[in-house]
């Protein structure tokens, strides 16, 4: 039996993302950010997006292009301190920003990917992040409900893929990618290398292929993937 | 960095014991690593998915895929592991993190910590700080004793939005080592060249004093 081939041209995959979509973007800083998929989304013009991403990259990189072009309505994130534009747009009310504790953002996405509706946690209970969230008691201890997150689309950056969509990540470029790859209706993975089926051994697979809809091979990486010289 | 700050960082490094799993927050805490002996058996953790952080690399030797949560290009050591963000915080929340060292805007005498938001001025989001502060087994703060205007950071009650309640165990500043106890702040050590009066004046809450001579660092 042969596994299906999910490789497609990037433009064809990204064209499925509609205006108003919720889009998850992998990455923590530069590593694992799908810069070229973001560039294609920018080129195709989708707007009124809700973006789910750990951070807002830095000014002039990644998600910042979408912010600069006014394509983002809402950002669900943990920390935007390296992007002055994101902070300014939040302060001016040009984008809505929902902050999450970092591990809780990860768990909300993981829950969404696992077919669960919410998680229950005491993280942030004593902070303003608890405002407006339903409070519960578990075994006599206070907690709150954090709803699961799913997206219309997830953009994933993998170091290696095979045509079926089995993915492997490099070093700290893993971060949110394997979680987001399970939590969207349309999962598009860009890969630095696409190996033939069997090129990734079963033990090397970090994200199993059944979660992935499209595999896009990157002919070459753009400058944005490079080391940041500060 | 001033001599007093450097001594503070060196003093904080002595809290790290063999066998620990430790997370060093962004800023001053990251510098603690420079004061750890190369053969110290300790596992450094970073939120973006690495246990076993090795030395920071010069830019020409950096791996574009290998950073710490502060964006520094780090390395691995024999035995390092990579994992996703859910596993990274599972480690934090489940009690596997023996110690974290964090920065602070304010610490209250009951151990409340505010270090992520100054309304109207600085509001970038808390990143992983809430989970680190709330769930690490021991929470140490590294901070200047006062803010840039000279106002005390160690105070009776936090005025800024909290990161976590009652979480801080010990504070290292450029002036003193102070514990948070059920009776409030307790002075443990004092920086070289300072008087007790200097420390009391720069602290915004009562200080319990040790009996006998105060150790100097």
Automatic annotation (TrEMBL), chain A:
Residue spans crossing the bilayer: none
Protein name: 3-oxoacid CoA-transferase subunit A
Family: Belongs to the 3-oxoacid CoA-transferase subunit A family.
An example molecular function term from Gene Ontology annotations: CoA-transferase activity
SMART domains: CoA_trans
Pfam families named among the record's database cross-references: CoA_trans
NCBIfam families for this protein: pcaI_scoA_fam
InterPro entries reported for this sequence: 3-oxoacid_CoA-transf_A (IPR012792), CoA_trans_fam_I (IPR004165), CoA_transf_BS (IPR004163), NagB/RpiA_transferase-like (IPR037171)
UniProt KW keywords: Transferase
Domain of life: Bacteria
């Amino acid at each position: 039996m042969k596994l299906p081939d999910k490789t497609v041209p990037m433009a064809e995959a990204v064209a499925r993302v509609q205006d108003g979509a919720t889009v998850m973007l992998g990455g923590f800083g530069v590593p694992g950010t799908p810069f070229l998929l973001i560039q294609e989304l920018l080129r195709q013009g989708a707007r009124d997006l809700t973006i789910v991403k750990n951070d807002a990259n830095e000014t002039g990189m990644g998600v910042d292009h979408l912010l600069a072009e006014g394509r983002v309505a809402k950002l669900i994130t943990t920390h935007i301190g390296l992007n002055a534009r994101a902070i300014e747009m939040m302060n001016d009310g040009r984008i809505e920003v929902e902050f999450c504790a970092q591990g809780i953002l990860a768990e909300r996405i993981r829950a969404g990917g696992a077919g669960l509706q919410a998680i229950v946690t005491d993280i942030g209970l004593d902070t303003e992040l608890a405002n407006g969230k339903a409070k519960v008691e578990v075994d006599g201890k206070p907690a709150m409900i954090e709803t699961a997150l799913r997206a219309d689309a997830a953009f994933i950056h993998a170091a290696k893929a095979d045509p079926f969509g089995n993915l492997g990540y490099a070093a700290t470029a893993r971060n949110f990618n394997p979680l987001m790859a399970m939590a969207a209706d349309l999962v598009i993975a860009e890969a630095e290398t696409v190996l033939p089926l069997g090129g990734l051994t079963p033990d090397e697979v970090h994200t199993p292929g059944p979660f992935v809809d499209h595999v896009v091979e990157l002919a070459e990486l753009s400058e944005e993937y490079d080391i940041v010289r500060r | 960095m001033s001599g007093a700050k450097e001594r503070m960082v060196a003093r904080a490094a002595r809290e790290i014991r063999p066998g620990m799993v430790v997370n060093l927050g962004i800023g001053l805490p990251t510098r603690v690593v420079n004061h750890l002996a190369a053969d110290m058996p300790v596992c450094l953790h970073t939120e973006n998915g690495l246990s076993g952080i090795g030395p920071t690399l010069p830019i020409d030797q950096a791996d574009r895929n290998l950073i710490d949560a502060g964006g520094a290009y780090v390395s691995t050591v024999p035995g390092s592991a990579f994992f996703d963000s859910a596993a990274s915080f599972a480690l934090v929340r489940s009690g596997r993190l023996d110690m974290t060292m964090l920065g602070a805007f304010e610490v209250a005498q009951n151990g409340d910590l505010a270090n992520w938001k100054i309304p109207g001025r600085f509001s970038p989001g808390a990143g992983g700080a809430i989970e680190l502060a709330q769930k690490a087994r021991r929470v140490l703060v590294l901070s200047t004793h006062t803010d840039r205007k000279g106002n005390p950071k160690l105070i009776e009650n936090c005025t800024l939005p909290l990161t976590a309640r009652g979480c801080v165990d010990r504070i290292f500043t450029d002036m003193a080592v102070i514990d948070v106890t059920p009776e409030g702040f307790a002075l443990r050590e004092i920086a070289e060249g300072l008087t007790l009066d200097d420390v009391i004046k720069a602290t915004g809450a009562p200080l319990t004093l040790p009996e006998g001579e105060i150790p100097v660092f």
